[in-house]
Amino acid sequence: MNALKILVLDDEKTYRDELKEFLENEHFDVFTAAKPSEGFKIIDDQEIDILLLDIRLPEMNGLQMLQNVKQKHPDIETIMLTGHGDMDTVIQAMRLGAMEFFTKPFRLIDIKAAIQRTQRYITLNNRYRYISQTHNQIAHEMLENSGTQILGISPAVNAVVNLMSKVAQTDNTSVLITGESGTGKELVARGIHHLSRRSEGYFYAVNCSAIPESLFESEFFGYKKGAFTGAQADKAGWFELANGGTLFLDEVVEMQPQMQAKLLRVLEERRVRRIGAANDTPIDVRIVAATNQNVAQYLREGKFRSDLYYRLNSFEINLPPLRERREDIPCLIDHFVRLLSKQLGKKIKGYDPQIIRMLSNYNFPGNIRELRNMIERAIILCDTDRIEAHNLSSLSPIYTPDAAVAPTPIEQPANTTPTPSPAEPCTDNDMFDLSEIERRAIIRALERTGYKKSDTAALLNITRQALDRRLEKHGIDIK
Length: 479
Description:
single chain; 479 residues; alpha/beta; Rossmann fold; Helicase, Ruva Protein, domain 3; 5-stranded parallel β-sheet
């Protein structure tokens, strides 16, 4: 692996020289600058990996420098150095993307440890990008070859795709897809259909909870002309329409008991009879059913027939909620930004990387559907060619006190991006140790969230990984 390139930006020559000598002895490529203009020139000329940045600088303060660097070079990770600071400075720097904080004088061994933690993060981030690019290619091939697109790089998504491809090779195996609302159950059902030999046949989707019992037979089985008042012509039912293809029964456990019995008989006999017909019609249909309900509870309460359940559940695929596969969120954001920008006629060229941090710490009770809606609203609100964090922060329910899972961030205006103000002279009361200030901020956030890491990271507006690094740094142990 190539040596990390580190830029030390500090107006105090003693610190610059000391850090340069120490880090070069640790086999890093080190550059130094005394003011922001010099730093920007180095950043433009070199592929800097880590920036060691002082808060007090000429030309602009360190927070302003950090914001500019993150806007133009979001991949550069920053470690802040300061002789003093207050709680507002710590929180603001966190929001702007600082990885670590050190107060002067610091121990060089602590700086080395922080750089090593940051290096591990950079390595993992680069690996994610490679996997993401590879997955995007695979997703494109799936879209071209099978008509469906399963997005994600997580082991959970890979397991689902593997199950889909295996069951698609069978012919008549019934499949039950379980998972919370918004996890993509119909998408998986369509994927199974398009990957199977039935792909040339019809895929017909039915919402079972929306069918009145009085219309069950006429809709599922069809009828002959004159079979009842209003039957003015022959009509094929859904089983016949899907013959040779796939019939998708969504929310199947919410069918009425009488409807369940009739459906079971058709699945066992593989034939239907239209209302008013004298003979049965053989059917060749694969059944894929889905539900977001607790099937075990429905079975215990007698709301769903166990014999029908076992008939439908020859092969089960469970879709995990988005909160259990957070590593897929960046990939989904990229997809929805591209897709919805085109659909909405907006020329969106990118988005603030802070958005990934914001959304990766939200629990998404509405899952992928909720994420899609958030991105759609943000694109509608966006007035430029780049989605900014405030386009999301004004959206319910992410930043409302009664949000399903995510707490309200600390004192962050909903309609503006953080804009650091010039550093002001500190009074004696402000001269706290910066590391202690950061530790207090984290503990306060942990207390407010009941020591839940994901919610604490969201409250501080940092990633879960960044929170873990800070917990390790400060020796805060959460069991």
